[in-house]
Amino acid sequence: MGNDHVNPHTDSRTGATPVTGGPLTRPWSLRRRVTVLLIAVGVVLIASVATIVFTALQAREAVVRQVEQLTPAQSAVHQAMAAYYNQDNGVRSYAATGVLDSLDPYEQGLRTLPESRQQLESVAGDNPEIDSDLEALLAAGEAWNTDFAEPVLDKLRTGEQLTPADSQLGEERFSELREASRTAQGRITAELVEAEQDLAESTQQLAALLILIGIVIVVLCGFLWVMLQHWVLRPLDELGRHLQQVSDGYYAHRIELEAPPEIERVGRNVDAMRERIVHDLDEVGTARRTLQEQSELLERQTEELRRSNLELEQFAYVASHDLQEPLRKVASFCQLLQRRYQGQLDERADSYIDFAVEGAKRMQTLINDLLAFSRVGRTKNFTTVDLNEALGNALHSLGSALEEAEAVVTGDELPVLQGDKTLLTQVFFNLIGNAIKFRGDEPSRVHIGVRQEGAEWVFFCADNGIGIEPQYAERIFVIFQRLHTRDKYGGTGIGLAMCKKIVEFHGGRIWLDSDSDPDEPGTRICWSLPMDVDKDEEPADEESAPVPAPSEQASAGADS
Questions:
Q1: Same domain, 348 and 384
Q2: 3-class SS at 370?
Q3: What is the pTM of this model?
């Protein structure tokens, strides 16, 4: 069909064309493209997630620094200065009034100061940046307490008066304490502002990263959809359109794709399969045309054969009617000559007349046997046949021959089956007649047996006659084949051929049993008949006179 061209570079086993060229000129496979794309997406996502985690950690660090360090440190500084203020006010009130109750603020400051000092020391140890300022604050408070508060209280308890030098020293030490407090608070406040700025920046970065990742994910999804559409869906749709055209009957349509190598390879394999299908269709078409031509030739030959058979049948009718008439006249006149001039002529003339009479009678018998043989199978009038009755009819027809030969015929119980009763009776008649004809020196003994093998009945006719050599097992069923001379055994040599034709007409087969004991005399002929014969089969188109019932005179024994 003009499309059996195959690419010479195509792999004959897979139909795929090997890709040539270097790695830079060779197109990427779909697996490689998807792998690279997924790696790129994975790298982007991993980088984005790492950045988000890093920013979140920074924000967390800023929050922790602000909440757990700076704010508690600022509060502790305020509490410590409040305690020192209370102590200073209590000392100065006690110095001015001399009343012990004036020392209550001092006592209260002493009770709250250890807690504030402990918190300041913990903050100073956790934050090296404000460590020095808090240490300076603690040192200034210790210096105020050692240089001013404790000496003044000792003097006041012993009754001494507070001197201006002591007041001046207290003012200096408390000023140093306030200055250290302001420095520490300034450092803490600055770091709080810095932590708030870091938290704000981290929060903004985190929000920006989340927005960016969302945009990247949307872009990647769009890119993946475009790549999926371009790499997979569009080539598959194109391949589907090609396959639809091929399935619609356009077998010459070539399948060509521009797609990743995997889908291109699928397209090439499908196109190679299409080319093989086209090639097979061409061969099927050629075979169909050849079969059609052979069928037409067979029909013509069948018609010629039917016409030839019809002509042969007409010839048989002519032979039966036109040839028998002159034969009867010849035989009749020869018999008249024999009766009238018997003994009046010489012995040679009498011998000639005997030969003529015998030849005419033998010719009549031969013609009748040929007509009977030709009529077998022309009509199919199957009915239910009791083979025991058919055997009895055959024995009745052979009555005189059985008495003359002192033959004894025995038989098993025979089945009932579908068939032509006249033809099946003819089988028994011919086989038993042969057994009697070819008997030995002892009285003839014949046995008809049967057994079931699968879906058929197997019959046999066994006698104690002269027997048949195994090398003649096929020859004895051929028409007109004789194993003995006519002078020794009479007959036309058509009996077993008639049996074979009748058995095969009933769907069976017949054979000489050569597996029997060679020491036992006689012959064993076996034949089979199916147990169920189709009773609804139509009869033949041409009808003829039925085969005559077997009779002793018309029987044709096979000269085995």
A1: no
A2: helix
A3: 0.42
